Amino acid sequence: MLGAVLLLLALARPVCPSPASVASRRAEALKKLLEVFGMEDPPPPPAHFKQPPQYMVDLFNTVANADGVTKNPDILEGNTVRSFLDKTHSEEMRFLFVLSSVAKNEKILTAELHLFRLWPRVTDGPKRHHFCQVSVYQVLEKDNPDTPGGKKLLAARLVSLQTSGWEVFAITPAVRDWTEDESSNQGLLVTVQGLGGSPLDPPPLQFASGRGHHESKKPMLVLFTDDGRRGASLPTAGFPGESHVPGTVPLSRSARSLDRLQPCQRHPLSVDFEEIGWSGWIISPRGYNAFHCKGSCPFPLGENMRPTNHATVQSIINALKLSEGVSSPCCVPDKLYSINLLYFDDDENVVLKQYDDMVAGSCGCH
User: Fold this and answer.
1) Which ranges does the record mark as transmembrane (predicted)?
2) Buried/exposed code over 306-342 (b: 16+ C-beta within 10 A; e: otherwise)
3) Most buried of 96, 121, 123, 170, CB within 10 angstroms?
């Protein structure tokens, strides 16, 4: 008899998970979360403090609010914007951008060369130019770009010599060539000429180079792509052997009963990137509110429950016990919003990426 009592007490005693099982559970959870963000491993934080390009920060603030939630889903044509800094760091107007981080499945939409136009040199003599012609070439022969067939014209325009600021040139065909064949990437060449194509020596117009200029003025390639990921969301089922989300305290039976009595509604669900160890490579946001849906869908379903027609019929069948094994409708998200992440990738390039179906906008009975 005493043995049976001791056995019952042992079975009734709550079993605390071992540190090893908690660590394993956390690792599995973070792996699943990385899959949602389209990554196999988290990028390492930059070796040294790096200021992201102001263009990328401004673009993030235009596309998303402070929590990363998309303000207007039509602003971006695709779902990914990548920025690359020039790797030549030379004073000559030759530029090279390494695009190895672009995945093969990404569709190239638009590529832009961003150059910061410096204030023009002061020239001697009465003759002063007000405009000059700037041309951007794709280099085909690295050592002989000026020979016939050594380069291909991508863009050309007249540029004022009266101001300074950013100039943006479309270079999409070159980037498509480079992503299809990495060895074809021989860089870009930029020339400055007079209105009739005459050489200007020294050229009155200069662009900021990779050396000797502020980080915010460095030459940059901005690439707009789409990786084809749509509607990516967390698995609805829990992890094997789990009855609650890792890191949370299971609710008592009375608390769970109380939850079931509450009507279906949206509740906060904070995702803190610092808490899960991702703050080193994510620039913005620091976290976001994903929200979650919780509550009952009792018969009869009112309009405030935002029920579908199917849920209404299911609720009736369940209430009248017209069919065995039919449960009441579930409280689930019926509107989902996308979020945006601004982050450093494996090569320390800054990426803006949009992820669909990440925030529960509202809840309903389905």
Assistant:
1) none
2) bbeeebbebbeebeeeeeeeeebbebbbbebbbbbbb
3) 96
Cα(350)–Cα(194) distance, rounded to whole angstroms?
36
- Token pair of 79, please? 């779902």
Structure tokens at 90: 């030379």
For the stretch 281-302, pLDDT in tens is 999 999 999 999 999 888 887 7
- Token pair listed for 101: 């981080």
d(CA 322, CA 316): 8
Alpha carbons 276 and 58: distance in angstroms, whole number: 26
Q: How many helices (H) and strands (E) does the chain have?
A: 6, 15
Cis bond before residue 307 (omega within 30° of 0): no
- The average pLDDT across 248-262 equals 50
Q: Which two tokens stand for residue 356?
A: 């669909």
Q: Which helix (H) or strand (E) holds 51?
A: none
Q: What is the DSSP string of 63-121?
A: HB-TT-BBS-TTS-SSSEEEEEE-S---SSSEE----TTS-TTPEEEEEEEEEEEPPPP
- Give dist(CA 79, CA 38) in Å, integer: 12
SS3 144: coil
Rounded CA separation 20/8 (Å): 27
Q: pLDDT-derived band of residue 126, with 50, 70 and 90 as boundaries?
A: very low
Convert the pLDDT of each residue in 19-66 to its tens digit: 777 778 888 888 888 888 888 888 888 877 888 999 999 999 999 999
Element housing 11 (H / E): helix 2-12
Whole-angstrom CA distances from 58 to 12, 52, 68, 219, 248 are 57, 10, 13, 17, 36
Contact 260, 252 (CB under 8 A): no
Return the H-helix or E-strand segment holding 332.
strand 331-344
Q: CB-side exposure of 252: number of CA atoms within 13 Å?
A: 3
